[in-house]
Amino acid sequence: MKRWIYALPVLALVIVAGFGGWQMMRPSKGEFERLSRAAPEHVFPLMDGSGEISFAPPPGGQTVAVNLFASWCAPCEAEHKYLVALGEKHPGQVYGILYKDKVEDGAGFLERLGNPYTQVALDPEGRGGLDFGLTGVPETFVISGDGEIILHIGGPLDDALAQKVSGALEAPRS
């Protein structure tokens, strides 16, 4: 009898398990939402040395976008033009967190590309980013006036994602 026929189910299982493992090792980056997750209560020092900031709740009690970036991050540079446009369209609502970077390098980055942020916080050790649930820079979080994360964009902004952030900044919250 043909014994190789008994190996077919095992081979099918190996193929399915291999595909599943491959998918788990390569999670898709992009946008994903986490509705009604509280913003972390982490307190960040400000880059200009003028004090501290927290986003739970955000400054002024209004909806804000918080972008985690670094001067050493190429995708951060690629998305920067979208942040500049968001900062112009929504003055006072776009904040930055300089993630695991030197103040002088971050300042040079913003001087070269423009500073779209109302204020820039520092996260030199990455603890605040971990509290946000950061998987890697750049990432953008939209936080409602009551301190809830209403939108999370994992990865660099493009035109469509920037429009989504803009819409979330404009949407009234109940």
TrEMBL record:
InterPro entries, alphabetized: Redoxin (IPR013740), Thioredoxin-like_sf (IPR036249), Thioredoxin_domain (IPR013766), Thioredoxin_ResA/DsbE_sf (IPR050553)
MF terms (GO), sorted A to Z: oxidoreductase activity
Membrane spanning stretches: 6-25
Superkingdom per UniProt: Bacteria
Keyword entries, A-Z: Cytochrome c-type biogenesis, Disulfide bond, Membrane, Redox-active center, Transmembrane, Transmembrane helix
Pfam family, one: Redoxin
A biological process from GO: cytochrome complex assembly
Compartments, as annotated in UniProt: Cell envelope
GO cellular component, one term: cell envelope
Domain Thioredoxin residues, every copy: 33-170
UniProt protein name: Putative thiol:disulfide interchange protein
The species this protein was found in: Hyphomonas hirschiana VP5
